[in-house]
Design brief:
This protein has 259 residues and is mainly beta. Helix content is 13%, strand content 46%. It has 2 domains: 17-64; 67-255, Exo-inulinase, domain 1 (Jelly Rolls, Sandwich). A hairpin with a 6-residue loop joins strand 3 (97-101) and strand 4 (108-112). Helix 1 (17-35) packs antiparallel against helix 2 (47-60). The radius of gyration is 22 Å and the shape is globular.
């Protein structure tokens, strides 16, 4: 087991709000007691050791989530982003994933720009630096074009291009769906109708805890399911379908169970 030090433990107030509140209460109570005796520690008081212990925990070792954020601002437009690998599930041409400029509010974004019309074609961009089982993954996406599809998705517990979970929202179908892909075969196990406007930014988020998956779209919970197909840690990433041209921005990965 890794020792808990400043270097390998990150305090996450989102992951541990109850513990943070309790520790903060201890610090405040102890500080008030110390102030009441003219900045001298009372000889028969627990305040000093309690305060020291609380401060040590707050500053060093609250186990919890680690957060990774990717906004593509340091990547060069016209080229693939650093830190990603690219794959294709199904048939057709590989995806073309490049960074490009968007509006002033988004700056650099990642876009899948190849509009190959092969129906069973799923380009995937996999983030290399995270392998985890229990994660919260969110991204902003914009469906730019596509006559057959305008689907944008998030991938988690990715083993390879033929085995992973994926949830996606489609601007032509106006729905969000969750699937598992097993040996290259995509199978849906829950679907929800929602309005997904083209050429507008939306936020897609999935929270994966054990066999429980919750999907939110623009802040609204749309899917709440259980599935035990993939139980082990895997990569996370981005996904499109067929001739979908999609822009992605502000990928956020909150890791609860890093491997």
């Amino acid at each position: 087991m890794r020792s808990m030090t400043r270097e390998n433990i990150k305090v996450d107030r989102v992951a541990c709000p109850w513990l943070i509140r309790r520790l903060t209460t201890v610090v405040c109570v102890c500080a008030r007691r110390s102030m009441n005796v003219g900045l001298e520690w009372p000889k028969r008081s627990f305040a000093r050791p309690s305060l020291v212990a609380a401060l040590a925990v707050l500053s060093v070792a609250v186990p919890g989530a680690q957060t990774v954020k990717v906004d593509f601002e340091k990547d060069e437009p016209g080229k693939p982003p650093k830190g990603f690998s690219f794959a294709l599930t199904g048939q057709g041409k590989p995806g073309v994933w490049v960074v490009r400029k968007d509006d002033a509010g988004h700056g650099n974004v990642l876009a899948q720009t190849d509009a190959d019309t092969t129906d069973y074609r799923f380009p995937v961009a996999v983030y290399n630096d995270v392998t985890a089982k229990d994660v919260e993954v969110s991204v902003q996406f914009k469906a730019i074009s596509g006559k057959g599809d305008q689907g944008a998705g998030l991938v988690w517990r990715y083993r390879d291009q033929n085995n992973y979970y994926i949830t996606r929202c489609n601007a032509l179908e106006d729905n969000c769906t969750i699937y598992h892909v097993v040996n290259g075969r995509r199978q849906a196990f829950r679907n929800q109708n929602v309005k997904v406007a083209s050429n507008a930014w939306h936020t897609l988020r999935v929270e994966a805890t054990g066999d429980h998956f919750v999907v939110t779209y623009d802040g609204r919970k749309v899917l709440d399911v259980t599935d035990q197909t993939f139980k082990d840690a895997g990569k996370v990433g981005l996904w499109t379908k067929a001739d979908s041209v999609i822009a992605f921005d502000d990928l956020s990965i909150v890791i609860h169970d890093a491997r």
